[in-house]
Every structure is written in C-alpha cells, then in structure tokens.
Automatic annotation (TrEMBL):
It comes from the Bacteria. The keyword Signal applies. Keywords: Signal. This is T9SS type A sorting domain-containing protein. Residues 259-333 form the Secretion system C-terminal sorting domain. Residues 1-22 form the signal peptide. It holds the Pfam family Por_Secre_tail. The keyword Iron-sulfur does not apply.
Amino acid sequence: MKTKYIVVALVVYWSVSSPAYAQLKTGDNSFFISPGTIVTVSSLSLTPTEATNLNNNEITHSSEPVVGKPTGSINRVYKLANPFSFKGKVLITYLESELNGNSEDMLQLASAGANEVYQIPTNKSTADPLGNNVHETGDWTNVNFITATSSGSVLPVTLVDFVAAQRENDVVLTWSTSFEANSNFFEIQHSTDGKNWLALGEVKSNGDSKIERTYSYVHQRPLAAEHYYRLRMVDNDGSYAFSRIRNIRVGNNLAIAFHPNPVTDWLTIEMPDVQSLDNVKIISKSGRVVYEANKSQFQQLPDSAINLKQLTAGIYVIQVREQDGTLHSSKLIKN
C-alpha cells in the first residue's frame, strides 16, 4: 500500500500577541482524508487510521509557549478553531531553538479542549531527537490545542476567556479560569500602543482551584483612544505568564481626548467644555509632576496644545481633573 502525502499551502501573517501564525482554512466543503494519508500543516502531521473529514475549521500555529511546571511547552502550539476528533497519528516536528528548556528525550504530546485545560502527558508519545519530532498514535477527542512538553510537566490553564468592554465611562475587564495551581495574583497591564506597558493594579487569585473562577477589574475613565490590556499571571514562586492582548477603542463620549500618542513635541488636548476643567497634570513613572496647568493657564494655551519638546523621552501618565472631582487618566509616551 502506498502512503499518500499532502502538504498544505500556508498563509503567514503577523499578530500583536504572537510573532507569527501559519494557517489552514477549510470551508463548508468536506476536506476528506483517507486512512494512511499524511496531512502536514506547518510541521504538524496528521495520519488518520480511519477516514476523516476536516471541514469548517482552521489550524493556526503560534510560537508563544504554554507556561507549565516544571517546564512549559515547546515554542510551537497549534490551535484548531473548532474541536477535532480522529483516530490516528499526530506528529510535531520542531526546531532545537523551539525546545524552551524541554529535554528532547522526554518530549510528550499534550492536548487540550476549548477550555485550554491540558491533559497531563501519559508517556505514550515517542520522542525522536534525531528526527526532531515527537509523535503518538491513539484516539484524539475534541482537540482544540496541541503542543509538546517534557514528561512529568503540567501545562496549567491560562484563561478560559479574557474580555474588555466599555461600560459608560469605564473599561471593564473580565476573565475566567477553570483551574489554578499555586497561583498568587493577576497584574492588570495597560498600553496605548500594544508595545509599552504599565501596571494598573492587581487582583488576588484563589490560589488553587479546579472549578471555574471569574474575576474583574475596572479601568476608570480612560481618555478617548485605542487601549490595550493584558494580564500578568503570577504564581507564589514568582514565575509568571502573560495572557493574550485585548484591545478596545474608547469612544469620545467623555468629550476629552489627546493626541498624538506617542508625542514628540506638541500634545493637543480636546475638551469642548473647558469651564468644567480644574487642572491638567503630566506625571512621570516615579510620581513626579513634570507639567501642571489650571483652567486659566489651559485656556491661554495656543490651540489647547502643550509644548513637550523639552520633556525627557519615556512613559508618563496624563491626568485631566474636572471641578466635580472626576479624574480622567491615561498613559502618555514621549519620544
């Protein structure tokens, strides 16, 4: 019997939260794989022992590892948009630069469903250090994620979900976990460009849990702009992992906005109701006020623009306080 090989063409694109993806998309038409046929997608090979249909699905490859204990996954994680079940062989070919501290001799496949709960490796996989691959034959049921890690390592839940939504003048962040082990706290981080981050606050975790837990944090009154958020999930031993990035454009319902950001010289503040203004402050990361203007001083600014040419490059916080005590704040990057 001849073995059939199918190498699937890939589409590569860039993403904020992960360096690169390669993907296979299948539509409503059935993508039929006959028994013994090897389908390879970005070094992930599937060889079913029974006739298999891969339809209405998408396979993506990420170089962002899953954090685990004592080691995380290799820097090669595959995601299927919809659960996939089949009987047969799964093989991952990797580069040595993708091992992420894992021992090639001890590599085992690890899979997870949509909730990202990874099964502890069962030591049924075969590691092939000479061929730079690891493979296992068996029944694969409701698989959404596939990667590899060292035997004995546990890949914990990252997040069930992480959502950013605007509620009136605030941005509400909510997230859920379905499993926690040795967890300490979540640090909420904020950015206006998706590259430079500042911590907004912390939320204490439940420590150890095997049931779904839901958390939330409110970013109060951010200025009208594009905002990016991520979680730094910190364990009791100090190790940590980052969530995927969520972004949201806050509308100008606050009637306050500033641009450009990052800024090089002149920062313009748009505030139609200047009479409600109490003061404007720009504060450094160390907490020092590097610029301040009250309502009278602000009204004298040409085109409501602040000259920041002499300000040292770095990350700052801009605060606009109204006379009723309402405070609007956001991060400001000076180039």
